Amino acid sequence: MSKLDDTIHRVTQRVIANSKDSRSAYLDLMRREADRRPEHKDIACSNLAHAFAGAMEDQEAMKNRRGPNIGVVTAYNDMLSAHAPYYRYPERLKLHAREVGATAQVAGGTPAMCDGVTQGEDGMELSLFSRDTIALATGVALSHQMFDGVACLGICDKIVPGLMIGALRFGHLPTVFVPGGPMPSGISNAQKQETRQKYASGEIGRDELLESELGSYHSPGTCTFYGTANSNQMMMEMMGLHIPGAAFVQPGTKLRQAFDRAAIHRLAALSGTTQRTLAQVVDEKAIVNAVIGLLATGGSTNHAIHIPAMARAAGIRIDWNDMAELSRVVPLVARVYPNGSGDVNQFHAAGGMAYVVGELLDAGLAHADILTVWDEGFAAYAKEPVLEDGALGWAAVETSRDETMLRPVSDPFQSDGGMRLLTGNLGRACFKSSAVERERWTTKAPARVFEDQSDVLAAFKAGELNRDVVVVVRFQGPRANGMPELHALTPSLAVLQSRGYRVALVTDGRMSGASGKVPAAIHLTPEAKGGGPLARVRDGDVIKVCAETGELSVDADLEAREPAPDREAEWGVGRELFRMMQAHADGAEQGASAMLASAGL
């Protein structure tokens, strides 16, 4: 294991310094919360009776405090294939708890929307703020103060960040995240991508497209592309919040069941101690490790928003400058679809997170000394899980089993990380370089300005975009309409690119972890609403998007122009219920959260 890289050390020390006051205040609060936790003897008997009434066979154990009581916060629903396996988890986790003299109760459920279902639809405008809603639901679940440890059941895009933010406000408790695993692989990603582009260009019909999509998303389990959901699981490994190696083991297998048992047994062992609480595990080094994992694996751009938000909930300040500086020294060692051809099942089979962690630690590119939920520390996450005589065990991963997906630090796919910061007179934006061919990292072309993604698709179908073009989609920021993902634009823009045009997207919206091969400057801040620079751009303005130099600029005197008027907020599909969150949300770089901003965090 090599000495920690100097840049990673410097960035970490800067994060620690910038977080000094807020982190200290957070840890003081957690100490006070631990001290004020009521003992059962101090709680009114009526209150206890309410808490125990539904516990059935566990009532006696809970009444007599025979062991710790674990609170399960579940995001189960079967609209999400990833969360469908959680259906039987409450009964199973209770059985696992009883094996070690503990009890478990479902403390509460959280909403969990599927961005795949709402992609390109009006409901997507609720997506980002569902993260705040999940955090609030987690807070409600744990506010009963009846629990000695927390098991968080969540996988997908906003769910894990929301669970994390909510649970961190109860950070005096030990907490383990319990994933469910990816579905088996379906049709090849290349075939899926080709079919989408054929549909976008009118070569095939809807029936053929639907059959292709059903071949990709076909059974319970996480979608197998490396989007936000699977990036979440990577980050939980990099932060030490999983049982080591839990991220990408498929549902319904004996190995998956062994992980679930181990998670509850581990929580029972940690409960009642003051060691390895969530507040202790999620520190500045753990947050930096999450960023490093994101960069090394080409993970979801959504985490440029989620990581700052999760960090704030723990009193930690990290920004895009920190992430960009880390990206300069963290090599890209994994290519998983949409950055490569193989999916997360193939990634896991090639060595997966165990190989990535091992390579990063050996090269001094990750913090080895983070506190994890596991006794052996972060080094344990550099081994892959196996079943040994029916019991959970771990084995070393010496080499990559597929160098088209995983490469050593000494011979990476790219010498720097998968994301870049762009700045200029249009503001600050993120660019996912790992998914884009280097020859397309620079685009300079006239702008075509839109305020709705449906208008982009209409212009594409009408042939109006058959040229070199920078497509601007504005008023898509958190305060304008909740910052929806614009992933539905990818197939059409990819068709333009395949026709030989230089194409790029500039938006104050999001593109998700599946943003693909089209150059995109996303999460642009300040957003257009309220008069940001993007509101002053006009059709024909020449925009430069350059990941090589980090430039995002327009050849126009923006100050001399009046901004376009703010779009009027639309009603329907529940969007009006989230107006308060939109009105109070802060910028994308801060995490785009109304809840954290309102709380002064």
Automatic annotation (TrEMBL):
E.C. number: 4.2.1.12
MF term (GO), any: metal ion binding
Matches recorded under Gene3D superfamilies: IlvD/EDD C-terminal domain-like (3.50.30.80)
Keywords: 4Fe-4S, Carbohydrate metabolism, Gluconate utilization, Iron, Iron-sulfur, Lyase, Metal-binding
Catalytic activity: 6-phospho-D-gluconate = 2-dehydro-3-deoxy-6-phospho-D-gluconate + H2O
Swiss-Prot/TrEMBL GO biological process terms: D-gluconate metabolic process; Entner-Doudoroff pathway through 6-phosphogluconate
Domain Dihydroxy-acid/6-phosphogluconate dehydratase C-terminal: 405-592
Binding residue positions for [4Fe-4S] cluster: 156, 223
Pfam families: ILV_EDD_C (PF24877), ILVD_EDD_N (PF00920)
Free-text function comment from the UniProt entry: Catalyzes the dehydration of 6-phospho-D-gluconate to 2-dehydro-3-deoxy-6-phospho-D-gluconate.
Protein name as annotated: Phosphogluconate dehydratase
Gene that produces this protein: edd
